[in-house]
Amino acid sequence: MASSGTRKRRERGSIVPEDILAGAFAVAERDGLDNLSMPELASHLGIGVTSIYWYFRSKDDLLRKMTDQATTLLQDRLPTPTDWKPEEWQEFLLAYFSTERASHQDANVLTDLVLMRTSSYSIPSTHRVYRSVERVLAYLVEVGFAPRQAWQVFSALSLYTRGFIITERTRRVNQTPPLGSPQLSLIDVDTMPILTELITHHSAMLDMADDESFEFGVRLALDQAARVLEGTTS
């Protein structure tokens, strides 16, 4: 008789690929993607490891399928340009990249799969992402940007957003707090008067990775993009 701490093994043939993928995400969220292994996944699911290999030939194959699912999830969440009027392009881009950032918050496995392990992308996943980019570029060209300008606007905002996401991911891993009164002991008040003033009176505004800071950076880029557009259409 199995002890109460032992997971009861499933009957042979009772597992399906969707169950394995769900289990893989659960184990990766718990232990980290680097520590995801076929034996640990089998133990989590209560099956023999050969049942996993029946559907997934290797861990790399499993990671590709996980990346397929992660990219589909992200792409399904992003706003579609066809739902926005041309004159709303700035608000669309703010919504697009804000949604991308929000999708990664507290979703370490999604970030690792989509942004950190791009070698795990399958051809279908790559095409899915490129089609999404193509739709945004087509929308910006319709607005009035030249194709090269549209690409530069999109890539600048994309790189900014991804940097923001990875910064937040790193901070979660290292449990690094934003600047605030606890960090005053690290500041030399005689040589750092501006930081001292900001931390003392405006500590809530010194988080480099908060909602306000993210939107401020996006709108700076959008203001420059608007000037480029004005020069193109004038």
TrEMBL record:
PROSITE patterns: HTH_TETR_1, HTH_TETR_2. Residues 14-74 form the HTH tetR-type domain. Keywords: DNA-binding, Transcription, Transcription regulation. Residues 37-56 bind DNA. This is TetR family transcriptional regulator. It comes from Microbacterium soli.
